[in-house]
Amino acid sequence: MEFSQARINYKHNYGDKDILPKSFCTVDGKFIENIKIKDIHGTPNEEFYKWEFIYSMIQSGRIPSRDYIGAEIYFPKGNIHSDPIKIDSVVFSDISWIDYYRKYRNDPKDVDSLQKVRELAVEVIEYKRNDKSIEQVFSSQVKGAIKEPDSPFVLGVYYDAGRLFLFKRIKDEITRFDNSLSFPTSQRILEQYQLEITDPYYTIPTLENLSKIIHKNEKADRSQLHIEDLDIVYTIQDDNMKNALNSIMRVLDSVSLSNEEGYMILIQLIAMKIYDEKQREDHGGYIQFYINDEECYQGSLNVANVQKYITRMKKLYKEAKVYYNNILGENKIVWTQEKHVKVANEIVKQFQDYSFVRSSNNDLYQLIFYNFATKFQKDEKAQFLTPLPIIDFIVKIVNPKAGETICDPCCGIADFLSKSYVNADMKLDDCQLFGFDNDYNMTVLAQLNMLLNGDGNAVIKYVPEYGTINQKYTTDKRIVTLNSEMHKSGKWDNWYDETELMQYDVILTNPPFGKNRSLDLSNAHDLEVSKLYELYDKYTETNPKSGLDKGVVFLENAIRQIKEGGRFAIVLSNAIMSNNTWPFVRQWVMEKIRVVALFDLPENVFAETGVNTTILVGYKPSKQRLTELISDDYSVFTRDILNVGYKKKTAKRTVKFDNDYALDPDTFETITNTEGESVLNEDFTQVIKEFKEWCVNQELELKKMFLE
Length: 708
Fold this sequence. Notes:
The strands form seven sheets. The protein has an eight-stranded mixed sheet, with helices on both faces. The two termini are about 30 Å apart. Helix 1 (about 5-15) packs across helix 2 (about 45-60) and helix 14 runs parallel beside helix 23 (about 685-695). By secondary structure, it is an alpha/beta fold. Mean pLDDT is about 85; it is low at about 380-385. The chain has three domains: about 5-215, no CATH class; about 220-365, no CATH class; about 375-645 and about 680-705, Rossmann fold.
């Protein structure tokens, strides 16, 4: 049972009661009865929330049974004769704690029993009823409570009327459990611990996981580890993970491999790790992606233990290559080169304690692409990462389904494909996902992206130079090049042989567009490619200029490549959809497809371009059906997206997206959902709901496409 469901059950069972008949665990070493859980006004008091939390911990399996938790646990404070500190609840690693605790309470001078209680305590919990500031409670109670146990790692919990805050103490340092929420350089408590942001309930570790955290370094021999022994990556901003990434980058720098060569080694090793984990998850056995201390390179490759490690990694590579040939087809790791071995050692060392398979896909996405993919980005090719919230929004609007072919003709790192795969409940087959890009490095990263999301063999193709502007994929799995004589003005089906171009059920894409991203009509090669498009003819007829916006080209490219009955979404410059330069484009679009929706995005949502953007969604009916729809004056769903749920920051030329949370207008605290998560300040969720409601009243074919 989930913690959130357990909370619902508690409220169902006790929400209308004033008295809890009996405590769910011992209170100061004994069970008590008739506990008041409402105040004189009938409102839940602090006791109500205390027992709600304890009940939910037990019911959700966070602790094996009530025997592992105690309420109102007293510890001496300073001098033995001074008033003790009372902790609202404490979780212990062993049920023997209760015997030691009772002995200590009966005899406060029994220091041996007290010491055992301190050693067994691994989690402390404080409760409130939303009538005190989190900053005050943290400073006055949580910080003091978390220091009482003698465990090297202690979890600190503050539960305030459903709001959850998790802290940890490692030795003498106290931080948020999620280190991404810690800013130790700040002098303000509220900012230092990001106390306005709550933790979701699912991040509460089980007692088993707590034990693993405490004792994770006990196994010196990593050859005896199973996938369950590896840590889950809860957030990319975790201090340990940040340190791991920094260590890898330092080694890459030290051997002059902070380049494509080094990053390809990184990518291939990650693919090997994912294969290893998936094999152990499916078939059991010990993890092979590891390195023991004695196997590390120390100046010579001619050492038995070093060669033992290299042999193990070569074997793992050979096995993984069978499954992930697109990534591992060409071996980039030269095991006879010392610098390659140094890099491989560091990558394995830093990642070996973490499970990629069991971690959040979004966290792994950030791990790979926000830290390393930017090294491949080339501004002149307009290669920029599309923020995940926008990707997710578009996929949910268009709704790719099992059995459909999905394509991104300029896929970059294949976000649209990976999200489509996840959105379709992973029921899409490899052969149904198609991605193309004119940068080889991006296609490799795209394969890795698909692998991280559960599908490592999608059809991802490298198409150099102009990419899919002039190169197309055929039904017999070839890349062919259009020419301006045979295929002028969109006559792409004009072939002398049996060549048939592939068409798709769904196209999702964010192509290059805007200033400096045009086909130069004064350039002979660009001109020849432009002539492949009907919109080139209309452009030169109506408003001839030196450059044809690639956004216009990719718009026609998408419309021509979707099947009759297919649908698409494309991110375009707002200018294409609104200003006086491009009315012929809009007219042409209306003659080819049924426009379904237009979504205007906020300024600088793609801050690299500085271009205002619009998402165009449509589907392609038959010519006759389109005529009927136009005659019926069909409606178009339009919305302005004002809030996207993130704030874009750029540091050292690396783009980062920080969460932007919704605030309660009265308290200025972050709003939480049923899972205890802080709610993002975004319009996407509401707009998706409104769009689906609008679809209900539209034509049958539209309803089938976007709702089923």
